[in-house]
Amino acid sequence: MSSRHKPTGCRNSATALSFRAKVYQHIRAYFAAHDFVEVETPILVRCPGAEAYLQYFQSDWQDAQQREHRLYLRSSPELQHKQMLSWGLEKIFELGKCFRNGGEFSDQHHPEFTMLEWYQVGSSFEQMIAFTTDLITSLYEHHSERKLNAWHKLTVQEAFDAFVGIELFDGDDELAAKALAKGYQVGADDDFETCFFKLMLTVVEPCLRKLGSVVLYDYPPSQAALAEIEDGVAKRFEVYLSGIEICNAFLECLDYEENRQRWHKMMTKRAAAGLPPIPQAKDFLAALRQPLPRCCGNALGVDRLLALLRGATSLREVIVQNNF
Predict the structure, then answer these.
(1) How many other CB atoms sit within 10 Å of the CB of residue 2?
(2) Distance of alpha carbon 171 from alpha carbon 154, whole angstroms
(3) Residue 226's Cα: distance from chain center in Å?
(4) How distant is the alpha carbon of residue 120 from its chain centre?
(5) How far is 49 from 151, CA to CA, in rounded Å?
(6) Global confidence as pTM
(7) How far apart are CA 85 and CA 37, in angstroms?
(8) Residue whose C-alpha is closest to residue 259's, from 235, 220, 224
(9) pLDDT truncated to tens, each residue of the chain (324 aa)?
(10) Phi/psi at 221 (5° precision)
(11) CA-CA distance, 249 to 118, in Å (whole number)?
């Protein structure tokens, strides 16, 4: 085969694909051993997600009467999974493609990526943390020459105390001034959310890199997304490996009215950021009227995990990609 006919994408593509297949087999066996049902949900959907600042790929389906219907490529199967829980399923997982538009194309970002997402009815927040860290540990033991450090668990407040040196108050209008006084690179007019993310990115995450394997949990309520708020914190956790975030998990907020209000707030943020509105997730909200049983969910970036397992520095080494 001449070089001009070789497929573009990751180095050693055949090896990378074989490695991906073995990791998929391990993931499926792990979930099967815990009695999960593997599901498959639509990629082309009417509502792509519930994120305030994401941009989505959009298309138009033309029906037989030449009418056009706006559709999107999903950013996550989250909304569809929660509908499935309303049907009586209690343990579900999916390995599938997801898409995000308008973002970076970098060593850790790609517009098309593989997500492992799962939900478990009756799981506590602490049980979901244990399930996640056990899964990751198992994958490292069987598919990596690299060793995980001992797991570190700390709250977002503890991380700010230790690494930023600022006591964190949700919605603190003085956070930017406090950060500037300590010499951090933030804007004097940054609101709480903007300043929070800048400090996370530039101060906290580099410190997490030094710790190796980290579970960061209990976020400010304003950062709850679709997580439950208990005892003044959002019951949400993220796992960082070598400073790279690989998953985002919630004790799910399942109250219909609370989710409806959060959807309205999300749309308000999108409008303020100059982003187009997206259709309301009517099927998801309808499922919440059941109501749904208490559950936890997690979304894990498979490509990032594959790169970490192989010791790769870029997703390009594990994704056979298009010519972006």
Answers:
(1) 5
(2) 21
(3) 12
(4) 17
(5) 31
(6) 0.92
(7) 11
(8) 224
(9) 344 444 445 556 888 889 999 999 999 999 999 999 999 999 999 999 888 889 999 999 999 999 999 999 999 999 999 999 999 999 999 999 999 998 767 788 889 999 999 999 999 999 999 999 999 999 999 999 999 999 999 999 999 999 999 999 999 999 999 999 999 999 999 999 999 999 999 999 999 999 999 999 999 999 999 999 999 999 999 999 999 999 999 999 999 999 999 999 999 999 999 999 999 899 999 999 988 899 999 999 999 999 999 999 888 888 876 555
(10) -55, -35
(11) 9
In the chain, DSSP assigns E strands to: 37-38, 44-45, 58-62, 68-73, 91-99, 112-121, 152-155, 213-219, 229-230, 233-241, 244-251, 295-301
DSSP 151-194: PEEEEHHHHIIIII-----TT-TTHHHHHHHTT----TT--HHH
Residue 269's contacts (CB-CB under 8 Å, 6 or more residues apart) are 52, 53
Tokens 């580099």 -> residue: 206
